[in-house]
Amino acid sequence: MSETAREVPFRGGGFVSRPRRWIGLAVFVLLLALAEWGTRTGAISALTLPRPSDVALTFVELYDSGMLFAHLVPSLTRLAVGASIGVVLGVSIGVAIGLFSHVRAGLTPLVAALFPIPKIALLPLFVIWFGIDEASKYALIAFGTFTPTVVATYAAVDNVDRTLIRMGQSFGLRWSSIVRKIVLPGAMPGILSGLRISLAIAIILLVAAEMLGAQHGIGAYILEAGSLYDLERLFAGVVILSVLGVLVSAAVAAVERRVLRWRV
């Protein structure tokens, strides 16, 4: 007597996360609704939190006056230049530390000494070295991005499965081929994860750099709004930074989807 065939459910999903984008949007909408309700009813003091609707009107005024782009464009330029320098140098030196023992022995103590230094505390020193103009802002953002990128990169290189490297050597692959086809692809998830942290630090340092000697920029805008205790403008600047952080994270996620298509 034959048994009825029964379909066995697939159990090898491997903890792959499923996108639930509407949940994040719903959380933001709920928080904004609670803030609007609280400020309108008086449950939240207007001295501590402005109405989200008033912040939205501030955005409209910024856009109509042209000041939104007058502050946003310089900030994006400083972020792009400084972070690019820091990321390129950080990834290059991090890979070198991970691959070459002499470089590791020489630079790892230096990186370990530089990493815990609060980068914002070095802003006056960068102003003395590079002047109060754009060069000091680029240098601060680049340096703040550089150290976490180095640490994340050489840690990612160290975590590459050595069995794969030995397998490549047993098949007679050249050193350059092993680095290009095994080490770098295997380290890429860790490098991109570190890049998220580095770029978040770059945004923080951007604001700090613009609060000193900058006429235009999101940091200068927030500093001016805070000195006048203009909460609507202050929160508008904070929202701009938050949106910038979300866009940077989304850009890194897009790079991950493209570069790490091999990972299931």
Task: Give a quick rundown of the structure.
This protein has 264 residues and is mainly alpha-helical. It has helices at residues 21-41, 52-65, 67-99, 101-114, 123-130, 134-158, 162-170, 175-210, 218-227, 231-259.
Task: List its salient traits.
mainly alpha; 264 residues; 10 helices; 0% strand
Walk me through this protein's architecture.
By secondary structure, the protein is mostly helical. It has 10 helices and no strands. α3 (67-99) crosses α4 and α3 (67-99) packs antiparallel against α8 (175-210).
Number of strands: 0
Distance between the termini: 41 Å
Helix proportion: over 70%
What pattern of helices and strands is seen along the backbone?
HHHHHHHHHH
Helix/strand-derived category reads mainly alpha
Number of helices: 10
The coarse overall form would be flat
Largest sheet: none
Q: Which residue ranges are poorly predicted, with pLDDT under 50 across at least 5 consecutive positions?
A: none
Overall pLDDT score: 85
**What's the alpha carbon Rg, rounded to whole Å?**
24 Å
Strand content: under 5%
